[in-house]
Amino acid sequence: MDATTKFVTAPRRTPPAPARPSEVARRRLTPAQREEEIVREAVGFFAEFGFEGQTRELAKRLNVTQPLLYRYFPTKEALVERVYQEVFLRRWNPFWEETIRDTSRPLRERLTAFYTDYASVILTYEWIRLFMFAGLKGLDFNTRYLDLLKERVFTLIIAQIRDELGRPPIAERPITPLEIEAIWSLHAGIFYLGVRKFVYTMPVDDVSEIVAMKVRLFLDGAGSVIGVEGAAPRAV
C-alpha cells in the first residue's frame, strides 16, 4: 500500500428507532383482542358524545385507521348494536329472577336485594348515558330492553306481590296497565338516581339506603293497586 492510498469509510447506517410500546402492543393484538378493544372504546365514546359521534373520531381515539375499524364492524349500525349487546345484555344477571322468586325470604328483603344489585349494574356513567342517548336518537335499544325488563322482572314482581297479598294469580286475572305503572314508579325512581348523577352531575349518596327506602315506600302502597279486585290484602 503506497502513500497515495486512501481509505474510504462506508457511511454509517442509523439503526431504525425502536417501535413505541403502543405500536408493538397493537401489532400483537389478536383479532379477538382488537375487536374487544374497539367495543370497549366505543362504549365510552358513545356514552360521552352520543350516537351522533363519528366513527372517524372513534378511530382516532383508538389510534387506528377508519378502514381497520370497518374491517371488524362493516357499518356504524353494526358497532352500535354490539355496544347494546355489551352494555345492556351481557350485564343482565339471571340470578336477579331467582332472587325475586326465593320465597324463603320476605318479599321486602327480596326486592331490596334485587334492586340493590340491579342499581350497582345500571347506575354507571356508560349505562345511564347510553340509555338516554339511545332514546333521544330514536334507536330501539330502549324498546328492546324495556320489553325484556317487563317480561322477566315486572311480571315476576307483580306475581310475587299478588301471592303475598292473597290476590288472584296472573293466570286467572291478567296484569293490568295500572299494575305495570305501579312497578314503573319504583323502577323509574331508582333509574333516576343515575340521571341525577351522570346527566345532571348532582351527588347521590348511599344508594343502598335509598333503594331500601324506595322499596319500603312502594310495598307500603302496593296493596292499593296490585290485584285490587282479588281477596282482601294482608300485610307485606
TrEMBL record:
Residue ranges of domain HTH tetR-type in the record? 32-91
Q: Name one GO molecular function term.
A: DNA-binding transcription factor activity
Q: Which residues bind DNA?
A: 54-73
Q: Tell me which UniProt keywords the record has, alphabetically.
A: DNA-binding
User: For the region Disordered, what residue ranges are annotated?
Assistant: 1-26
One Pfam entry for this protein is TetR_N
**Which InterPro entries would you find in this protein's record?**
Homeodomain-like_sf (IPR009057), HTH-type_TetR-like_transc_reg (IPR050109), HTH_TetR (IPR001647)
Q: What is this protein called?
A: TetR/AcrR family transcriptional regulator
Q: Which organism is it from?
A: Methylobacterium currus
Source taxonomy: Bacteria, Pseudomonadati, Pseudomonadota, Alphaproteobacteria, Hyphomicrobiales
